[in-house]
Amino acid sequence: MMKFDKYVETANKIIKEIAEELGFPEDRELAGRVLKAVLHTLRSRLTIQESFQLMAQLPMLLKAIYVDGWKYQEKPLRIKHIGEFVREVIHEDKPLGHHDISTSKDGENAIRAVFKVIRKHVSEGEINHILVNLPPDLRPLWGTV
Description:
The chain has helices at residues 4-22, 28-45, 48-57, 60-67, 82-92, 97-100, 104-121, 124-132. It is mainly alpha-helical. This is DUF2267 domain-containing protein.
């Protein structure tokens, strides 16, 4: 018998951590929207192989969020700069993107919050593998230089 409660508990913990990192500990709806938008933007930037490697380590319900609405593309988006990543996150967070993220700095902080929490749930080796495959300008979003 599958224990779905465990998956829900882990997902709720992650959403709570993101909400706290965002500075809005009671707004789990915002945290969920931002998590989904960031994961979808990251997904569009990674190759299919990199996505599968990351998904293998994500908690079950984050895997579901990651693949929700996924339309496979042969080549990843050419997002090279933080500003482009922020714009894509806002676009993914439709229809509330500009409400949830009103400035570029808010966007960077939201992305950093999500990545900080994801780092706690994915091996450092996998994070390093993602970083190697990202343009240098995007790496600081993960809390690295």
